[in-house]
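New to this. Look over this protein:
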Amino acid sequence: KIITVSEKDKELALNYDVTTAEKQIVIHNGIIDKFKEKVPNKKVNSDSKKIIITSVARFSEQKDHETLICAMSGISNLNWELHLIGKGSRINNVELMVKEHKLEDKVFFHGEIHNVHDFLDKSDIFVLSTNWEGLPLSIIEAMCSSLPIVATNVGGVSELVTENVGLLVPRKDIQALRRALSNLIENQEMRVKMGEEARKRYLDYFCFEAMYSKTIFEYNNLIRK
């Protein structure tokens, strides 16, 4: 058997004749719940507070920070901060873009950190602008943290982000990404509701226990055969 982490990856394997459908089993990624003791409560946020948006992604060809910065530049009048977590070869290009768009007081770079969940705990929105994906762990971590998601509709992202959990946009579509972020920035009720649904969806399908039980089940089946 071959385990793939998304239905999209399974389709790719079939399209490129890597293996058969019968040989494959889809088991979505799952992560350990770092918020078991204290689930973030996004309801406490007031309408007047600054909206904290977080993105966790390497600065690489795969991730598309450039489209994200262009999208944010068109809504600089709104009350938000964007926090970028990660490192990579393209970080200098993105820093230059931020200066060119005069967003230095709204966009902050944090490099590679080991307490991502602390940032997510204090955030209101999670965004992932990207060119291709399998099944992003960063989105699952954000769902675990009760965050609404704005993400590019590539790879297995749509298997994570349903319409009640977040907003999906086409790849490299600046206007669509801008509209999605603007809608969530200006609508607290939508943010809270989607964040609550994201947390529920994480618990039902993308927690560590779900991934573990499905994996053990497949191994036991193979052993019995």
Summary: The first helix runs from residue 7 to 15. The mean pLDDT is 93. The longest strand covers residues 51-56.
